[in-house]
């Protein structure tokens, strides 16, 4: 199939060239066929994961960035002081920290977390909020099935209702 | 060989009908019967081939293929067909309506016509014309008419480009298809498909016809792949260049017709190759191995026929999923500089062999 | 050629141009009228041979619109920076260097699109990213888009 | 349907041209890029490329982002070289601040960059096969790229967009399995790559379709600023890793892959050879990761670069990425310009494709390895 002008070649050489090229072509094609048919007859090589069926065994890597979560202890206590550093660091404005005035048992008035609002739909998972949090309140969750029918469901409140700050963390 | 003879069955149906009604009505009834059977067969084979193609390509590509609808995804193609039936039929602005609607039917009728002449088993053949081979070649080449019309009437440049490519391609490769079949016509001395099949009772032409028959077989496979517009010769579609070529503007069931016709043409090409080169429904026989031949005889001819056909279809599919697409000028170079000259020389050699009586 | 040699060379050959040693490159600042001529000499002079324009950026600093050319020699392996600031903000015009470095074709279209600097003798100066009827030049500091830009 | 009126008369001339739009939605433009083709029959006589369909104004966004926040934007330019883009910005900021990152960080950054390059080239190979009509290559390339993405995901948490390399070092330390997984990957890829050659490279159809198609001369490559594998296919020695080593490239042996033909096949071979080359770089580096767990230097929460302008070049999988930053000493940069490789590589297609067929245009644009978000930014 090569179209070189070979004026200087004699008849016999042209003839030989014609067939050697033909043979070369067929050989390369057969090589390719051997690979594909080889895979056809080796079903062990199949790598498809059957996703909804393997949900029970499907485990994401520990560091998988599925969503931003706030971990709570068994007593419904979180670690967020409401300082707002995550909000400042977020490049897309997907975090809103709403604070409220709280009074400590000693009678001091401190800032406490009211609502930590997280817009999943705007999040780009850059990880700056988790990295910059001074009290390690935020973390990445493993959940990855985020599809919802209404966009408003993507706006989440990360702190659980009625949750309090963990005792060992000092409120500011 | 006499184990599975369908001619007595067909004869008895014919006699039963003749006893009931006038000869003219018998013909009509038989035609309707055959038509209905072939329609069912057509749909069934089409759906099966789509499924097989998907599975074959999936296994080649380390995938599982369709596996959601039905066991092993068997009903997937039916589901797709239903989806296509419900889709809106789009019409391009300023398209030639009549031709636009006509084109898919031409394509599908062309492939449908050819089935009639295929010998599925002894006595199981609707039309045993004495020019059967010629009939099939001429009827299948009608497909290009539909493709050209589809491309022209779509009022889309992509479609037109695809159609023009297809025209150039099919017309050139038609030559090679005909020429490679000519070798077998010389060998068997007949164009009647039943005669060709019978002539292979003691061995398939692929084996009996020495090297020339093998060369003709390879050329036929390549040329018929090209003629059916399948990869690596899918110039007319050329997904990465022309988006979908001649059927870019078609949707819904009209697209399904093109789709089905493509698979049917592939089936026809493979069936023809199986009939002509691999003995059709004739079982595999080796001279001198009586016991082996006996065992082979017990396998029904339909199994032989479809087994051979699907083996060839597998090869054609393997071509598509392995090779890159050719460019249009390379495609024509391949035909006019390689296949055709080799074919012509091959025919000369075959004639010589037959004259000297060297073949088995 | 190392940093100092290049500095000396540029100083001696481009007397009309302000040559300074930056943190990374030798930086030359040229007036708009001398831009094309200096660029041509940079590219063609046998000791410079800056034949590869690897970056051309439009900037809007200190209230002035300008273009920064990063050029390199593929044979002599040295690089320098050429800066040129337009005289006025509205209707800023510079000479195109497309005929010297064809790579400027795309860069200049981008600068025209986003900063609104017109290039003389550019073969096809159209907007490249934004639609043709877009108003304003987004990368300018005085560009205001109330709807789409969130100011924090 | 016969058209009899004279107004519909078609003039058939010798040089009748027509225009066809390839894109913005087209299978072989790999994104939303539009080629406006002038054709004579099947022969291309003119190409005009139109971009900007997904222009997001990243450069403008950078002007209202702190230097840490820029990182996640660069991921989204050339998403197939996300690590390398991150590295470019990080290096530029570090250079401006005069920070020297720990040795360990340098080595890990280099390893991540090379992994990215291998992954990107694998994906390119898959897509190029698709462009040429060999549909199976796509899955083989993707299958092998998956192994690299797994390594990324385990360490960085993301598969495509990692935001892992940041000013001062890395976001967090690499996973303990990191080294072991790369040690597994190298022999695996070494085993699979000859298969690619047998399946596609050696194939007569591919060779015929790519040899002497879209020849880019060395002068043209330099003049138009075509860098990366596309430039190196034209013998334009432009590998930043060799000429201006950054991170840990100064301690490894990097062989620059150069081909002289300048055609589509040369560009194809450069990329395949670069996979081998990257594997050998990985092999050299994987034993050199210093012990310890320092993954970053302590940075201030708000980075302020000294006033001035800074330029940093790195070699992404598609060519030279330059970051030009102008700072006035505040926490936001005044101007950030990305000299993205694809933006420069794209416009040369208007010369390369002329005189070839449509199918060749697809091959040429495939061999330039265009990533549209990188063009549009």
What does this protein structure show overall?
- The complex is a heterotetramer of chains A (172), B (360), C (152) and D (377).
- By secondary structure, chain A is of the alpha+beta class.
- Chain A is built from three helices and seven strands; from the N terminus they run H-E-E-H-E-E-H-E-E-E.
- Chain A has a three-stranded antiparallel beta sheet, with no helix packed on it. A two-stranded antiparallel sheet of chain A has the order 1-5.
- The N and C termini of chain A lie far apart (79 Å).
- The relative contact order of chain A is 0.18.
- Chain B has 360 residues and is an all-alpha fold.
- In chain B, helix 10 (210-227) runs antiparallel to helix 12 (252-277).
- The model of chain B has no long low-confidence stretch (mean pLDDT 83).
- Chain C has 152 residues and is α/β, with parallel strands linked by helices.
- Chain C has three helices and seven strands.
- In chain C, a hairpin with a 6-residue loop joins strand 4 (64-72) and strand 5 (79-85).
- The N and C termini of chain C lie far apart (46 Å).
- Chain D is an alpha+beta fold.
- Chain D has 15 helices and eight strands.
- Chain D has helices at 58-62, 67-74, 82-97, 103-132, 137-156, 178-201, 204-210, 218-224, 228-232, 240-243, 264-286, 341-346, 349-352, 358-367, 372-376, and strands spanning 18-22, 34-40, 43-50, 165-166, 169-170, 308-316, 319-327, 335-339.
- In chain D, strand 4 and strand 5 form a beta hairpin.
- In chain D, helix 5 packs antiparallel against helix 6.
- Chain C: It holds the Pfam family Complex1_30kDa.
- Chain C: One of its GO terms (molecular function) is NADH dehydrogenase (ubiquinone) activity.
- Chain C: Residues 29-143 form the NADH:ubiquinone oxidoreductase 30kDa subunit domain.
- Chain C: It comes from Breznakibacter xylanolyticus.
- Chain C: This is NADH-quinone oxidoreductase subunit C/D.
Topology (elements, then pairings):
The complex is a heterotetramer of chains A (172), B (360), C (152) and D (377).
Chain B: H1 7-20, H2 23-60, H3 76-86, H4 97-115, H5 132-140, H6 143-153, H7 157-188, H8 193-198, H9 205-208, H10 210-227, H11 239-242, H12 252-277, H13 290-298, H14 301-322, H15 328-356
Helix pairs in contact in B: 1-2, 2-12, 2-14, 3-12, 4-5, 4-6, 4-12, 6-7, 7-10, 7-15, 10-12, 10-15, 12-14
Chain C: H1 3-13, E1 18-21, E2 26-30, H2 35-44, E3 52-61, E4 64-72, E5 79-85, E6 93-95, H3 104-115, E7 118-120
Parallel strand pairs in C: 2-5, 6-7
Antiparallel strand pairs in C: 1-2, 3-4, 4-5
Chain D: E1 18-22, E2 34-40, E3 43-50, H1 58-62, H2 67-74, H3 82-97, H4 103-132, H5 137-156, E4 165-166, E5 169-170, H6 178-201, H7 204-210, H8 218-224, H9 228-232, H10 240-243, H11 264-286, E6 308-316, E7 319-327, E8 335-339, H12 341-346, H13 349-352, H14 358-367, H15 372-376
């Amino acid at each position: 199939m090569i179209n070189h002008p070979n004026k200087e070649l004699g008849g016999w050489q042209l003839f030989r060239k014609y067939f050697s090229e033909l043979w070369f072509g067929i050989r390369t094609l057969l090589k390719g066929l051997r690979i594909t048919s080889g895979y056809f007859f080796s079903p062990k090589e199949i790598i498809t994961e059957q996703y909804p069926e393997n949900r029970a065994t499907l485990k994401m890597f520990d560091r998988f960035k599925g969503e931003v979560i706030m971990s709570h202890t068994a007593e419904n206590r979180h670690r967020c002081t409401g300082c707002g550093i995550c909000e400042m660091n977020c490049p897309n404005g997907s975090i809103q920290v709403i604070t409220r005035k709280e009074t400590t048992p000693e009678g001091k008035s401190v800032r406490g977390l009211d609502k930590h609002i997280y817009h999943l739909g705007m999040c780009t998972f850059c990880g700056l909020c988790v990295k910059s949090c001074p009290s390690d309140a935020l973390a990445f969750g493993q959940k990855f099935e985020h599809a919802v029918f209404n966009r408003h469901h993507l706006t989440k409140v990360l702190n659980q209702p009625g949750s309090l700050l963990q005792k060992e963390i000092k409120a500011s | 060989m006499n184990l599975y003879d369908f001619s007595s069955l067909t004869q008895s149906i014919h006699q039963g009908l003749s006893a009931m009604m006038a000869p003219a009505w018998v013909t009509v009834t038989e035609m309707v019967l055959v038509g209905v059977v072939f329609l069912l067969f057509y749909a069934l084979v089409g759906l099966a081939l789509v499924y097989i193609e998907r599975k074959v390509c999936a296994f080649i590509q380390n995938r599982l293929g369709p596996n959601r609808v039905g066991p092993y995804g068997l009903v997937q193609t039916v589901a797709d067909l239903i989806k296509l039936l419900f889709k809106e039929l789009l019409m391009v602005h300023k398209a030639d309506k009549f031709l636009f609607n006509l084109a898919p039917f031409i394509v599908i009728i062309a492939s449908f016509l050819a089935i009639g002449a295929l010998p599925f088993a002894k006595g199981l053949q609707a039309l045993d014309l004495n020019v059967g081979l010629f009939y099939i070649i001429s009827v299948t080449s009608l497909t290009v008419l539909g493709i050209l019309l589809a491309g022209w009437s779509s009022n889309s440049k992509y479609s037109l480009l695809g159609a023009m490519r297809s025209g150039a391609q099919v017309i050139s490769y038609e030559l090679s298809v005909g020429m490679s079949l000519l070798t077998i016509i010389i060998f068997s001395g007949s164009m009647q498909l039943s005669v060709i099949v019978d002539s292979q009772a003691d061995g398939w032409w692929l084996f009996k016809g020495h090297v020339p028959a093998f060369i003709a077989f390879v050329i036929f496979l390549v040329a018929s792949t090209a003629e059916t517009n399948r990869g690596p010769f899918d110039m007319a579609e050329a997904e990465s260049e022309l988006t979908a070529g001649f059927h870019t503007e078609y949707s819904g069931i009209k697209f399904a017709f093109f789709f089905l016709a493509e698979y049917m043409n592939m089936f026809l090409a493979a069936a023809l190759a199986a009939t002509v080169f691999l003995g059709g429904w004739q079982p595999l026989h080796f001279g001198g191995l009586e016991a082996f031949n006996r065992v082979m005889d017990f396998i029904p001819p339909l199994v032989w026929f479809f087994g051979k056909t699907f083996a060839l279809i597998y090869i054609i599919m393997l071509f598509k999923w392995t090779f890159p697409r050719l460019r249009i000028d390379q495609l024509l170079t391949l035909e006019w500089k390689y296949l055709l000259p080799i074919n012509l020389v091959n025919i000369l050699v075959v004639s010589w062999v037959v004259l000297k009586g060297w073949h088995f | 050629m190392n940093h100092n040699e290049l500095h000396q060379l540029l100083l001696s050959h481009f007397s009309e141009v302000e040559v300074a040693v930056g943190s990374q490159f030798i930086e030359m600042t040229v007036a708009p009228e001398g831009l094309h001529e200096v660029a041509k000499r940079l590219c063609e002079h046998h000791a410079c041979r800056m034949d590869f324009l690897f970056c051309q950026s439009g900037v809007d600093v200190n209230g002035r619109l300008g273009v920064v050319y990063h050029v390199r020699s593929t044979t002599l392996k040295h690089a320098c920076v050429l800066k040129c600031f337009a005289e006025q903000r509205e209707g800023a015009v510079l000479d195109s260097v497309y005929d010297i470095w064809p790579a400027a074709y795309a860069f200049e279209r981008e600068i025209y699109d986003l900063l609104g600097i017109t290039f003389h003798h550019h073969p096809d100066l159209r907007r490249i990213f934004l639609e043709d009827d877009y108003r304003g030049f987004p990368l300018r500091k005085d560009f205001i888009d109330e709807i789409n830009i969130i100011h924090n | 349907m016969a058209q009899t009126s004279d107004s519909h008369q078609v003039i058939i001339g010798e040089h009748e041209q027509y225009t066809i739009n390839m894109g913005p939605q087209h299978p072989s433009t790999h994104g939303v890029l539009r080629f406006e083709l002038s054709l004579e029959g099947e022969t291309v006589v003119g190409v005009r490329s139109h971009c900007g369909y997904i222009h997001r104004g990243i450069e403008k966004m950078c002007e209202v982002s702190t230097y840490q926040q820029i990182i996640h934007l660069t991921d989204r330019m050339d998403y197939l070289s996300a690590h390398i883009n991150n590295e470019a910005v990080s290096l530029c900021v570090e250079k401006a601040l005069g920070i020297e990152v720990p040795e360990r960080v340098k080595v890990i950054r280099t390893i991540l960059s090379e992994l990215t390059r291998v992954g990107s080239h694998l994906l390119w190979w898959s897509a190029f096969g698709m462009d040429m009509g060999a549909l199976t290559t796509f899955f083989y390339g993707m299958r092998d790229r998956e192994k690299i993405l797994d390594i990324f995901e385990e360490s960085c948490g993301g598969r495509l967009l990692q935001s892992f390399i940041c000013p001062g070092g890395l976001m967090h330390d690499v996973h303990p399995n990191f080294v072991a997984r790369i040690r597994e990957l190298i022999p695996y890829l070494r085993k699979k790559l000859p298969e690619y050659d047998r399946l596609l490279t050696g194939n007569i159809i591919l060779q015929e379709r790519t040899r002497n198609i879209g020849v880019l001369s060395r002068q043209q490559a330099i003049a138009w600023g075509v860098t990366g594998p596309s430039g190196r296919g034209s013998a334009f020695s432009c590998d930043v890793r060799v000429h201006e080593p950054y991170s840990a490239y100064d301690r490894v042996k990097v062989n620059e892959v150069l081909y002289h033909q300048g055609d589509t096949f040369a560009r194809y071979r450069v990329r395949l050879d670069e996979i081998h080359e990257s594997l050998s770089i990985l092999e050299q580096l994987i034993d050199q990761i210093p012990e310890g767990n320092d993954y970053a230097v302590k940075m201030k929460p708000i980075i302020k670069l000294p006033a001035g302008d800074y330029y940093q070049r790195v070699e992404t999988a598609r060519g030279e990425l330059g970051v030009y930053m102008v700072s006035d000493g505040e926490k936001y940069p005044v101007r950030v310009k990305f000299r993205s490789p694809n933006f420069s590589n794209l416009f040369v297609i208007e010369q390369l494709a002329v005189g070839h067929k449509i199918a060749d245009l697809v091959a040429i644009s495939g061999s330039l390895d265009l990533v549209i978000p990188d063009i549009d930014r």
